[in-house]
Amino acid sequence: MVPEGERGWCDSHCHLDYLVRGGEEASEVVASAREAGVDCMVTIGTRCDRLGELEALSHNFSGVYMSVGQHPCHVAEEGVVSASDLEVLCGGVKVVAVGETGLDYFRTREHKAIQEESFENHMVVARRTGLPLVIHSRSSGDDMLSKVKEGMEEGEMLAIWHCFDGSVAEAERALDMGMMLSFSGILTYKKREDLREIASWVAADRLLLETDSPYLSPEPYRGKTNRPSHVVHTGGVLAGCRGISEASLREILWENTHRIFWRMRGEGMG
Ligand SMILES: [Zn+2]
Ligand SMILES: [Zn+2]
After folding, report:
1. How many angstroms separate the alpha carbon of residue 3 from the centre of ligand 1?
2. E-strand stretches of the chain
3. Overall number of domains in the chain
4. Which residues have CB atoms below 5 A from the ion given as ligand 2?
5. Which residues form the domain of 58?
6. What is the pLDDT of residues 221-239, one digit of tens each?
7. Residue 100 C-alpha to ligand 1 middle, in angstroms?
8. pTM of the model
9. C-alpha to C-alpha distance for 235 and 118, rounded to whole angstroms
């Protein structure tokens, strides 16, 4: 729980639709998040043909927002969605971001060309709409950063590196380009002192926090199904590495979340 009058936590990246598909009750997941003091969540699009599920979730619950995108690992299966189609889908009432999109070379580089094509389409939409781009990058930091740099040269673009798990050099490059870094439960893992070190010096106005639930549960729930309520555990570790109180961190994260996902400000906070 968060004391009366203080800002709540924000989960900048979760997959409520996956939790529901896994058998969880959406109302219970959202209620337990609220109980834990999480007052806003962005449920992230991974396939355009399943956006209806996200629209229903964001429509049914205040404080739940959504994004529109194609996860790099789903592009081959779904087929590349054009920039103009993505842009139309972004017109939805509670759409606050474009993505997740990006490059994932972890399993295979086989679909590199179509991942790039899809990534470029999302960047076009981020520039046209001004919505922030939610970027997924796995074993692809260098290529991803080069692509985003090119994208930014075409015009102004807001960008978030979700589930940041990169090196010092990658963090520095991303920050130089104006990107936000979003930290997930990986921050709580015992061996990831390197990531906690980076999280300790990132400029305060570039920080975001996320669960990526149902994946990447933070300690002490590692290995179990993740839920938005668990963001408080990652938040506790982040506050610890920065040497600030959880209340001050929540204040910073709330401001950052509502600045980057600027469409949240146009709607009742709930
Ligand atoms: Zn991702
Ligand atoms: Zn995700």
Report:
1. 32
2. 9-14, 38-43, 64-68, 95-104, 133-138, 159-161, 180-183, 207-209
3. 1
4. 44, 212
5. 9-265
6. 999 999 999 999 999 999 9
7. 6
8. 0.96
9. 32
